[in-house]
Amino acid sequence: MSACAYCQQRKGKRPCPALGAICSQCCGEHRLVRVSCPPDCLYLDAGSDYQQKRLSEQFMPVRREFYREISEVGGEQAVALYNLIEVVMFSYFHGRRDGLDAEVVTAIQALRRTLSPLHVPSAPMPVFAEHLKKEYETFKKQNPQQIADSSTAPDVLDRAIRFVSGFSGNDFQSRRFLSGLIGYVKMYHPEIAAHLTKQHQAGHIVLPGQSFMPPAASEPHTHGPGCRHHH
To answer: What is the pLDDT of residues 26-80, one digit of tens each?
Structure first.
């Protein structure tokens, strides 16, 4: 059996379409990040599901703490803003294997700049940043009193950038935050994950009230399809 084509130390027990043979440790750590995996690789789906489940368990308590923080800072409007960002992130990235946390940070930074009173037009936004901006503007236009505006949103977005960056880590090509978020929604709110997936495929605008807005409880409850609360 040949050595792992990546580390050259352990045995390459897994057939790797990109490298020839790879060990399970390098496959798990470097797939799609440092190894150009083709979409038909047998290990992609199983590996992604495992990573998402593992990270969702770590993501849940820090997410809860972040919601508590922004609720104390900006109330329901601050929560609605970050809720919208989560919905847009899940809808956009849940079916993509190449999405990076850096795209999320860049998009939130771009939205932060557009809402700043000192905003100066810059170069064209990346695709996801433009998508997030449009979703914010649409929701703001339809529900002007329900979401943080230019006077309070910058502080919430600064905190969101720190939250995403902190969970993501120092690797520029990290997917740790996106995997944690996507895994969290799939694991703890599967009905909402299915609903948002259908909405995204149909091209509908996704609104925060359909997703993950948590109440003051030990674990955030998700309002959405199948929710049995009486209004």
So the answer is: 887 777 667 877 777 877 766 567 778 888 899 999 999 999 999 999 999 999 9
Q: Is 71 exposed, middle or buried (0-12, 13-18, 19+ CB in 10 A)?
A: middle
Amino acid at 25: Q
Please tell me the distance from the alpha carbon of residue 12 to that of residue 4, in angstroms, as a whole number.
4
| Beta carbons of 97 and 48 less than 8 angstroms apart | yes
Structure tokens given for 42: 């047998």
Sign of CA dihedral 136, 139, 141, 145: negative
At a CB cut-off of 8 Å and minimum separation 6, what does 6 contact? 19, 22, 23, 26, 30, 34, 35
pLDDT digits (tens, 9 = 90+) for 99-124: 899 999 999 999 999 988 776 666 78
CB-based contacts of 161, cutoff 8 Å, min separation 6: 105, 108, 109, 112
The ranges assigned to domains in the chain are 1-41, 52-210
